Structures are given as C-alpha cells and as structure tokens.
Amino acid sequence: MSLKNTADHYGTVARWLHWSIAILFLGAYCAVYYRHWFTEPKTTANTIALQLHLSCGLSAAALVVVRIVWRFMNQQPRLEPGGRVAHLAAHWGHFALYFIMIAAPLTGYLGTGANTKFFFLLDVPNVQSTTAFQTFVVERGGLTFDEFEEPIDVVHKAILGKWIVWLLVVGHALAALYHHFVKRDRTLVKMTGGRTRNALS
What domains are there in the chain, each with its CATH number? Predict the structure, then answer.
C-alpha cells in the first residue's frame, strides 16, 4: 500500500491520520463523560480523567495540523459516481469536519485554566500563563481569564461538544455506511482497505 494517496485510494499516512484522530476524539469524549458521570470533583480519578481529556485533545489538534498539510501535499481520491448535490454535500461535510477538528481542541485549550500533564509525561502550560494571553487579552483587551474563558467555554461545551461534533460525526459515519451497504461503492473501503459489498456478494 502506497504511503501517498492515489486516484483510487487513500494512502497509508492519510488512513493512519484519519483513524488516529477519530480514536483521539473518542478518547477525549470517553474521558470527559467518565469524569462528569463517575467521579467526584477534586479527586484523583477526576483529575486523571481531565488530564486524559486534555491530552487527547492536544494530540488530536497536532494530528489535524499534520493531516491538513498532508492533504495539500496529496491528490484526493476521486468521488464515487453521484449527482452534483451529493458531491457538494460530501465537500461541505468534509469542510465542516475539518472546521470542527480545529475548533473543538482550540476552544478546549483556550477555555481551560488547568495545565495539561500530557499523558503524564510532560507539562503543557495553560493559555492564561502565556505571554500572548497577558499581552493581548489582559493588557490590551482588559479582560480577566474568567471573562475571557466564559464564552469560549460555552462554545466548546454547550455548542460544539454537546451537539455539533456529535451530529457531524454520526452523520459522517452514517454516510459512510450508506455508501458501503446501500450504494455498495468504494467510499468506505478507500479509507479502510477492505472490499466493496459488491465484491463480497
């Protein structure tokens, strides 16, 4: 299997980035829901869950940057046959997913006052402790961290995390399954390396 994309398949690098980011987003969700549902504030379990959430988010953000750079360096596999509306929906759906993959980790980092103990290996300072925050937000913007954090927290938790990410991810997964089991084309297998349903029939 080629490292780079071809007209018919995603390459090994694109596949690895796709599934790694998906796993990291899932890990971030599992950690944060575990923290809210099964732990008490200010306990060791609560702190570990938070740090895993932050670590997964930062990792996902880094891989998204790599994925975007890799996308511009590679051709994209051809879309499967379909109408203009279907192709436009596919393009806009991917654009929305890239936006979310950037916006969710970014607002998560900007909206937390905790330092990240990156998988308990090294410390990543929170935005409040950076020179850029003190210069542009505190000194020039005249905002405290609480004032800065509140609207970002709403976007990250109540808008992106609670609704939009789930809608886009579930929609993306359902679209892939529709192509595989109903249309029986190569949309899903381009990213998995499997075979189409027609080939299995």
Answer: 12-200 (1.20.950)
Q: What is the pLDDT of residues 129-158, one digit of tens each?
A: 999 999 999 999 999 999 999 999 999 999
Sign of CA dihedral 80, 85, 89, 91: positive
User: What is the per-residue pLDDT across 157-188, written as a single tens digit (0 to 9) for each?
Assistant: 999 998 899 899 889 899 889 888 998 888 89
The residue whose two tokens read 């937000």 is: 137
pLDDT tens track for 93-113: 889 999 999 999 999 999 999
Taking the CB of residue 19, how many other CB atoms lie within 10 A of it? 12
Handedness of CA 109, 66, 53, 177 (dihedral sign): positive
For 151-161, how does the pLDDT look when each residue is reduced to its tens digit (9 = 90+)? 999 999 999 99
Burial class of 93 by CB neighbour count within 10 A (0 to 12, 13 to 18, 19+): middle
